[in-house]
């Protein structure tokens, strides 16, 4: 390891990344040099930046031991054998940044943050991590920007039970997962200018009550300027397959289920076709989650969206239309067939 006068620690491939993080302490910048760095890491100090030379040049991959020290927090709802590439967790952990590297092939998440604040994941490629790509849980003011995530059983990027605060998911390419982006009982999320393609569902915003989980809800979110296309995989069909914990979903671009006060603006939702059974039947879906302890969709603003070339329908509006606002949207075939604010 090399330490500069500015306090930056540079770690060469084969040198212990975890030791560098632990010894550098709060506020440190730990740079991983170009190459493959074996082993998972735990960021437990505030103000830390973990940076690589770029996702095509610096790779964090499982090491020969395959595990972490016993006191490292494990991925939520997973067994001790499940290991995430980067874990961000600890008392008072905030202002952490992970950037410029690929996190590849872990049995848990690529990047996992729990009970932290102001965590930024930027320019990270989360590739073929078994459960999640980037998974931020019960954390405030999260940022996921300019990342690429594919090959996860659940979401490429997910915010789960994150309280109402300023969360940003921007400029990401999310493909080949069950969900591109999953906003799971999280509020205040701005999902803008993302490309979600080749998943079972491009984006899912879900308000659903789970036994033993914190209070949920999805409120006050913005979904704008996203390209949601070609989401044709099938999830939820196989017990150990893609999206195994959920109902069957396939061929959906964007779904808002039980959400309140979400603005859906200037999105392009096109070419989404189911390849298997699905509880949703359109490129764009509004639906209730009352049967799972949630609520009806209320106070949605759907403006200037282009929804075309999806099968079997372009939109499926399972909501009280009087409690929503639709304007200047274009679509082909929908349910109901004629709705104010939609034209062909």
From TrEMBL:
It comes from the Bacteria. Signal peptide: none annotated. Pfam families: Beta_helix. Residues 110-283 form the Right handed beta helix domain. This is Right handed beta helix domain-containing protein.
């Amino acid at each position: 390891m090399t330490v500069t006068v500015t306090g930056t620690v540079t770690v060469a491939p084969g040198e212990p990344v975890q030791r560098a993080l632990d010894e550098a302490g709060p506020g440190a910048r730990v740079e991983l040099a170009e190459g493959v760095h074996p082993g998972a890491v735990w960021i437990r100090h505030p103000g830390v930046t973990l940076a690589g030379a770029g996702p095509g040049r610096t790779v964090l991959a499982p090491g020969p031991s395959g595990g972490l020290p016993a006191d490292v927090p494990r991925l939520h709802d997973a067994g001790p054998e499940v290991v995430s590439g980067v874990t961000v967790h600890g008392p008072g952990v905030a202002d952490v940044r992970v950037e410029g590297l690929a996190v590849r092939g872990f049995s848990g998440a690529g990047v996992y943050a729990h009970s932290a604040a102001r965590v930024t994941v930027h320019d990270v490629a989360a590739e073929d991590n078994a459960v999640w790509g980037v998974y931020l849980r019960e954390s405030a003011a999260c940022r996921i920007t300019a990342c690429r995530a594919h090959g996860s059983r659940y979401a490429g990027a997910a915010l789960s039970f994150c309280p109402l605060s300023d969360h940003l998911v921007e400029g990401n390419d999310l493909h080949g997962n069950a969900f591109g982006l999953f906003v799971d009982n999280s509020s205040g999320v701005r999902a803008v200018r993302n490309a979600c393609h080749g998943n079972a569902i491009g984006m899912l915003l879900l308000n659903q009550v789970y036994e033993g989980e914190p209070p949920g809800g999805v409120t006050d979110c913005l979904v704008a300027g996203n390209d949601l296309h070609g989401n044709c995989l099938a999830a939820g069909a196989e017990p150990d397959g893609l999206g195994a914990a959920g109902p069957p979903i396939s061929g959906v671009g964007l779904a808002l289920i039980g959400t309140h006060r979400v603005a859906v603006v200037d999105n392009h939702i096109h070419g989404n076709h189911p390849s298997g059974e699905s509880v949703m039947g359109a490129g764009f879906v509004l639906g209730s989650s009352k049967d799972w302890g949630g609520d009806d969709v209320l106070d949605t603003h759907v403006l200037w969206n282009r929804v075309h070339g999806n099968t079997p329908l372009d939109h499926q509006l399972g909501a009280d239309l009087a409690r929503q606002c639709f304007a200047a949207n274009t679509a082909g075939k929908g349910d109901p067939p004629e709705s104010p604010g939609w034209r062909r």
